[in-house]
């Protein structure tokens, strides 16, 4: 595995088998990636390819609807991160134009009498569906089946990450119980051929906020990961069926900055429509994260005080929001900014 290369593709099937040497190899590879830039890719997981394709087909149908239909479920009509976000709603990189992407946010369907909703826990509330969309029942069934499959995969990936720190595979059990997570379905139209590459972004350079992200890309490239050793942006070419896995800011803090939450961005220069579906796993909002075992030398203090998952993720939101505010005050944005909600 060379260092300055796009995230390696690891065969995750070893996790489900009983070949101890293969398991050990997987754990070692994942550890190396977590230490380097917190990015790797996996094949050999247990998410059925038919389910992956079904969810992609369904979100393509959604994004193909007329703008005024999609606008009926705008995300800024609620405070719990559900619904549709128009093109140009986010700026994730200071000094760039608003992101050329539209999104649909789906999560656990939390009723209004659930304690998470009553206590306004992180991103918790009912899903917002476009009930008039043709085939909406299939759309709901497929996206929610996929959402649950992503929770299961997140738990499995965390079991491997636990072992990279010489912890029991079940170490993250309480953290993953009653966890909050968001499925963000994304569509990036092709960037205009004459767009200024210095400021035009599908999604500006950012790090993710939660614990881990599991990203499925369709067939069109555009995702790039920053490589600090060579100061380059490396393309992450889509591999059919694979997941790009990356650690978020909350995990980096939890690991005392031993494991990395790394910059990445999307620029869609392919001339084609690009679709991707990241799943952001935050964890149980009340779980307290404090320096994980084996993440500091003996006698070395923890860099950060204990904090809940909810506080950790919200502090990333606030920093990102502040960055977007600075941009809007100092630049005449070429695309109207309709929402200031920042979610990554
Ligand atoms: O679309 C992609 O490939 C990346 C999306 C991403 O980084 C994000 O939504 O945080
Ligand atoms: Fe991201």
Automatic annotation (TrEMBL):
- Enumerate the PROSITE patterns for this protein: FE2OG_OXY
Q: Kindly state a single biological-process term from the GO annotations of this entry.
A: small molecule biosynthetic process
- Which Pfam families is this protein grouped with? 2OG-FeII_Oxy, DIOX_N
Q: Which residues form the Fe2OG dioxygenase domain?
A: 178-283
- Which top-rank group of organisms is this from? Eukaryota
Q: Which UniProt keywords apply?
A: Dioxygenase, Iron, Metal-binding, Oxidoreductase
MF (Gene Ontology): dioxygenase activity; metal ion binding
Q: Which family does it belong to?
A: Belongs to the iron/ascorbate-dependent oxidoreductase family.
Q: What protein am I looking at?
A: Fe2OG dioxygenase domain-containing protein
